[in-house]
Design goal:
The chain is built from 5 helices and 19 strands. Helix 2 runs antiparallel to helix 3.
Length: 394
């Protein structure tokens, strides 16, 4: 009996304790459910006119790149410039051994003197036969023969003069001068080399005028057709007459170190047709080069504005989630609840993304904590101003 009484006593003590514990646990769960919503950083959709650019790989050439050729064969006698520096128009660059060509000139001078002597004799004979023919002292055929000899002597003199001029021209080619003001490169032949005949050097150097530079690049057929339609007015003006400066298509240049060249260029040449082997068309643009920063042979990216999206919607790239080629974002609605929204992404503008479909200008997009939120979740939005590191929006 005592044991039963003790058990009842413990039961009376244990049951209330369990009830108190359950009540306490229930209160804790209620407190967890009533926790305040988490703070989530959001950004306002940016609405502005967005220029859309395309980039193409191009190569830089001088405004003029003129090869310096050895136009006669011979041994290189002298080099009269410093490589890599400026040269002036008419400045002596190379000299080739002139002795063989001087000998040809002397030979042709001798032949000219001989032809001129024969001309004097033929003229004298003709002058003597003319009065004799009038008095019938000589036959008409003899006079005709003397006239033919005189005409042949004139032709011989003309031929000798032409041969002498040709020999003098070849002698002149022994001294090679710069055709323009520009920068000269590294010489491909040294003093004592035989030049002017393959496999010996024929092109000795190149002089480039770089006050302006030409940049050539290629467009695919589809790119060309798109740009041609976008700039139809400019192209029409270009066909009818010279474009005004404000109507010309301005393009930019991105150098190999990623920097943007500060002087814009202008498209001034479109090839007549598409290359059938590559399916591309050649475009040429001219850029000013007052600082002489650009040199022939550089590779650079040509940045072309293809269109402007009026009232485009931009959001930070980091706001976008991708799954199997589908793009979506989280927005916070008017009830401060998370809502998943599928979007159609457009061009990437630095660290911003153009959204073609799925958002409205007054939408607020989740910026951080994408893995912590789900659709229907209540949050406390914190509006944040996104600062682009690429300054693409400026």
């Amino acid at each position: 009996m005592k044991r039963i009484t003790t058990m009842k006593h413990f039961a009376y003590i244990l049951i209330p304790a369990l009830l108190v514990s359950l009540a306490s646990s229930s209160c804790k769960e209620k407190k967890q459910i009533k926790l305040p919503p988490p703070e989530i950083k959001i950004v306002q959709v940016i609405q502005k006119d967005v220029p859309i650019y395309r980039e193409f790989v191009g190569q830089v050439y001088g405004e003029k790149d003129i090869p310096i050729r050895a136009r006669v064969e011979g041994f290189l006698e002298g080099i009269h410039f410093k490589e890599g520096l400026k040269v002036n128009k008419g400045q002596l660059l190379y000299s080739i051994d002139p002795l063989p060509f001087q000998a040809k000139v002397n030979t042709q001078k001798s032949k000219l003197a001989e032809a001129e002597t024969m001309l004097v004799k033929a003229k004298s004979d003709l002058d003597r036969y003319i009065p004799l023919a009038k008095s019938n002292a000589v036959s008409q055929s003899d006079l005709d023969a003397k006239q033919a000899q005189y005409d042949a002597a004139i032709s011989s003199v003309d031929a000798a003069k032409a041969n002498l001029r040709s020999a003098e021209i070849e002698l002149g080619y022994c001294r090679i001068y710069s055709p323009i003001n520009g920068i000269i490169g590294k010489t491909l032949a040294r003093e004592g080399d035989f030049v002017g005949r393959e496999p010996n050097p024929v092109i000795l150097n190149t002089v480039s005028k770089t006050d302006k530079v030409r940049v050539t690049f290629f467009l695919t057929e589809s790119d060309y057709l798109f740009l041609a339609r976008e700039y139809k007015k400019d192209i029409t003006k270009g066909v009818k007459g010279k474009l005004k400066e404000e109507d010309e298509t301005k393009i930019e240049l991105i150098l190999s170190d990623g920097s943007l060249y500060k002087y814009p260029g202008t498209v001034d040449f479109i090839d007549r047709g598409v290359d059938a082997s590559t399916g591309s068309i050649l475009i040429q643009a001219t850029f000013p080069n007052p600082d002489f920063l650009l040199r022939p042979g550089l590779y650079a990216k040509v940045k072309v504005k293809i269109k402007t999206v009026k009232g485009g919607l931009l959001i930070p790239k980091r706001c976008i989630m991708e799954l199997q080629g589908q793009y979506s974002v989280y927005i916070v609605n008017s009830e401060n609840k998370i809502e998943a929204r599928q979007i159609k992404a457009g061009a990437r503008i630095g660290d911003l993304q153009l959204v073609n479909k799925g958002l409205k200008p007054d939408d607020k997009v989740v910026l951080e904590g994408l893995q912590k939120v789900t659709s229907g979740m209540e949050v406390k939005p914190v509006l944040t101003k996104f600062v682009s590191k690429t300054n693409a929006q400026e």
